[in-house]
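Support case: heme C complex. Customer-provided input:
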Amino acid sequence: MSTIDDKAQSDSADAALEATATASSEIGEKEEENGAGGFIILFFIIGFFASLIIGWVIFPKLLYSKKIQPVTFNHALHLEHVADDCESCHFFREDGSYAGVPKNEQCIECHEDLQGVDPNEAFYVTEYLEKDREVPWLVYSRQPDCVFFSHAAHVKAAKMECEECHGPRKELTSLKPYYENRITGYSRDIWGKNISGIKRNTWDRMKMDDCAECHKREGFKVTSVQTGKDACFVCHK
Ligand code: HEC
Ligand code: HEC
Ligand code: HEC
Ligand code: HEC
Ligand code: HEC
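Agent response - structure generated as follows:
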């Protein structure tokens, strides 16, 4: 009896030993797995930052081509010299349409004679004014051709400030580069500078949603066309 008991005891002791051995080897494996897990996390982090850099830095660089305005123009300086503030250059025509970016006609009065010694002025006068060529200004806010936009509705009827859509202009002493979307050919100002789409100012971008959002907020009384509140053809030609 006792021998059998002894055998059984030693068997169970062996089993216990074996169990500890497998347990410890499992622990060893676990530790190895943790090491591999660490690499996976590291690769994830590297991949994550790489895609952030591609998405935020490289992609916009590839997507947009940078163009420089043909002539530099100093808004702040000119506002000190004109009689009628913005309207000296940006005015409504008789028919209510907006003159937009000024033509030589608005400049010749002063620049027929050189006003100073600024090489930019001399460049403008000799290359454009004297040759009777209009400056091909790049318009940052230019919308696609299918969009209809009326300054009269916003500035005259709704009494909105230029700043709300264009940002501060009065203080500008030089012109920022113009970025053109290589795929669509549109100005970057439509989508906005911030690739993540966060909008801090009302003028950060002017996509379809931005127009529609304000129209909704304003309760948008459609006055000139008999249409639904947000019918496509309010804004589309
Ligand atoms: C002496 C003429 C002159 C006056 C005065 C003037 N501007 Fe301009 N403006 C220009 C010229 C030239 C351009 C084209 C170059 C540029 O983009 O700045 C321009 C462009 C602009 C644009 C850019 C549109 C776009 O999307 O590219 C805005 C907005 C603007 N002006 C607003 C104003 C406001 C607001 C005022 C008054 C505070 C003002 N301007 C006064 C001559 C003038
Ligand atoms: C009311 C008079 C007046 C009008 C209108 C006017 N300018 Fe000027 N412009 C000036 C004066 C003054 C200077 C400063 C000259 C200096 O001191 O060097 C100047 C300077 C400039 C310069 C050089 C400085 C700079 O802006 O980089 C350019 C370019 C220029 N004007 C372009 C234009 C264009 C384009 C228009 C029409 C959209 C225009 N100006 C309309 C008076 C005027
Ligand atoms: C509700 C927003 C809004 C307001 C307010 C506004 N604009 Fe604009 N502006 C635009 C949009 C959008 C465009 C582009 C229009 C297009 O491409 O047909 C534009 C275009 C322009 C242009 C370029 C036009 C061209 O095609 O040559 C000038 C200059 C300009 N705006 C000046 C002004 C001035 C000055 C004021 C204030 C009196 C003003 N804007 C108020 C939205 C606005
Ligand atoms: C910050 C507010 C605001 C933004 C941004 C805005 N709008 Fe408007 N828009 C108005 C208001 C207010 C009216 C109504 C004016 C009135 O009383 O007739 C209006 C009127 C219009 C009208 C005239 C409708 C009609 O038949 O009378 C058109 C077209 C229009 N907006 C197009 C646009 C487009 C396109 C954009 C974007 C590029 C835009 N708007 C951005 C506020 C805004
Ligand atoms: C409040 C003005 C507004 C209304 C209403 C509106 N759109 Fe737009 N839409 C825009 C503006 C501004 C753009 C250009 C900027 C952009 O791509 O977001 C645009 C762009 C588009 C484009 C892309 C065109 C291109 O060349 O990139 C399509 C497609 C479009 N709109 C369809 C529609 C349809 C369909 C409706 C009606 C359900 C509608 N829109 C109503 C303002 C408007």
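The chain has a mean pLDDT of 83.

Case will auto-close in a few days if no follow-up is received.
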